Here is the input.
Amino acid sequence: MPEPTLEIGSTYALQKPAFNQLIASLHSMGYQTVGPVVKGDAITYAPIQGLEDLPQGYTSEQDGGRYRLVYTGHPRYFDVTPGATSWKQYFFPPRSEMFTASKEGRNWRIEETPQSIPAYALVGVRPCELAAIHIQDRVFLRDEWSDPIYRMRRESAFILSVNCLHPCGTCFCDSMGTGPKADTGFDLNLTELEDFFLVEIGSEAGKMLVSGLPIQPASAFLIQNANRGIDEARKRMGRVMPNSPELPAFLLSNLEHPHWDVVAKRCISCTNCTQVCPTCFCWDAFDQPSLDGEQSKRVRVWDSCFNLDYSYIAGGNTRPNTRARYRQWLTHKLASWHHQFGVSGCVGCGRCITWCPAGIDITAEVAALQKEPIS
Here is the structure.
């Protein structure tokens, strides 16, 4: 069979055993490959070397405040939906050293901390997570300013996304328009079938990688199977967000709705929802001085709008109670985020529902607010 002519936007078929060649090619191009693995009875992201590291045969049961990893023995590698961790840790690390201040006589010398950053290849990025990466791009790579730590990590990354054919009980990406199919922003995009991966090329880097693999043109039969699987996934979403173009204005005009008091009685301000969210970006910086007082390091760490100290300013706290903090989180995510970044801050991954110890469901809270508006 003659070699297919590769084109960006085209789809090809790769037999599953040849996936290890794809990983090997990424290594030869200098990438450190990370993907979903089983660790501590959950799915997390860690370095992978091939198919043998992926969670073949696993699925997950997820509901409000509930996560359970289940081994069923099925032959697929990318069926299981993600756990608590998200890909943002590779671009926006939970902890980053920014600079060191060293005392020199009566003066201080400031030195930026050199960043030793590998080129990451993210393997198995779900469409909702891919949308979350694009949202964080809007936050950290703005025209007027860009975050140097984020930019360096993001520019060198390779993204291999995977269409989601088996959503979990807390997924609602379809109602947010972020899945279950990835449309753009990837280098390669896979759809897992019984014996093949369908491979869609999304960039020149992806085209270069595929050129050395034993691919073949994707038949109409394989493409139809993939499309059927995606259509079925849309119907199996565990949740639906009552999302509409009017939602941002509705939320911001109902800031005194009595339902905020109802949800505040359940919320314990634990910050779980913001820590697992793939788009939340609150952070704080603190100085870490040496014991002799001759040096100090400035460190950036993840923070949360649910922390009491986060909204503390001179003269008091602008959000002194859980009601104010929960209202800020939800209205920012679904309303004022549009004003700041031109897009919703929610991608429908469902993590905030699954990992909330109180089982608070953002889709149910929005529905309750809309049921009896006071505006």
